[in-house]
């Protein structure tokens, strides 16, 4: 957990939220706004949106204008495995799967491909516990 906590302490950390949405009732919307409100640089990734919360949205990880420090996944696990494959292909090795986004198949893939990852804990809860956030 320490490497993620160190990143979460830094005001320059960028977090790509895969599944970000304008829908305030979906976790992709709640998490995106929560991280933004806490001062993180957030990047929205959503295949079907041009913007999220007034910010540009990118269809895939490959479309991002910069390499994110953390990829936060808020999509169903059947899509989440594709996100792990995309991240691996791009050399992005730090990924966080929100509760319900993870699966045994994803965790096995992350282990085999030597990702630094979290699967299951909520990033909103983790960042709530950090000083200054």
Structure description:
With 133 residues, the protein is of the alpha/beta class. It has one domain (2-128): Rossmann fold (3-Layer(aba) Sandwich). It has helices at 2-9, 27-37, 77-90, 104-112, 123-128, and strands spanning 14-18, 41-45, 51-52, 55-58, 70-73, 94-97, 116-119. It has a seven-stranded mixed sheet, sandwiched between helices. Strand 3 (51-52) and strand 4 (55-58) form a beta hairpin. Helix 3 packs parallel to helix 4. The model has no long low-confidence stretch (mean pLDDT 92).
Notable traits:
single chain; 133 residues; alpha/beta; Rossmann fold; 7-stranded mixed beta sheet; 5 helices; globular
Ends: how far apart?
A: 17 Å
The 3D shape can be described as globular
CATH structural architecture: 3-Layer(aba) Sandwich
Helix percent reads 25-40%
Strand order of the largest sheet: 3-4-2-1-5-6-7
Q: Strand pairing plus helix content: what structural class? A: alpha/beta
Overall domain count: 1
Query: What's the mean pLDDT score?
Result: 92
CATH class: Alpha Beta
Whole-angstrom Rg: 13 Å
Structure summarized in a few sentences:
By secondary structure, this protein is α/β, with parallel strands linked by helices. It has helices at residues 2-9, 27-37, 77-90, 104-112, 123-128, and strands spanning 14-18, 41-45, 51-52, 55-58, 70-73, 94-97, 116-119.
List the helices and strands and how they pair.
Elements: H1 2-9, E1 14-18, H2 27-37, E2 41-45, E3 51-52, E4 55-58, E5 70-73, H3 77-90, E6 94-97, H4 104-112, E7 116-119, H5 123-128
Parallel strand pairs: 1-2, 1-5, 2-4, 5-6, 6-7
Antiparallel strand pairs: 3-4
């Amino acid at each position: 957990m320490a490497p993620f906590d160190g990143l979460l302490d830094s005001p320059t950390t960028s977090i790509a939220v895969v599944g970000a949405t304008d829908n305030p009732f979906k976790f992709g919307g709640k998490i995106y706004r929560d991280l933004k409100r806490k001062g993180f640089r957030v990047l929205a990734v959503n295949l079907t949106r041009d913007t999220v919360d007034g910010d540009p949205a990118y269809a895939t990880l490959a479309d991002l204008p910069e390499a994110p420090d953390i990829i936060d996944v808020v999509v169903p696990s059947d899509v989440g495995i594709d996100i792990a494959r995309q991240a691996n292909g791009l050399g992005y090795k730090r990924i966080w799967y929100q509760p319900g986004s993870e699966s045994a198949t994803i965790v096995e893939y992350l282990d085999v491909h030597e990702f630094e990852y979290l699967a299951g804990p909520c990033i909103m809860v983790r960042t709530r516990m950090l000083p200054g956030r």
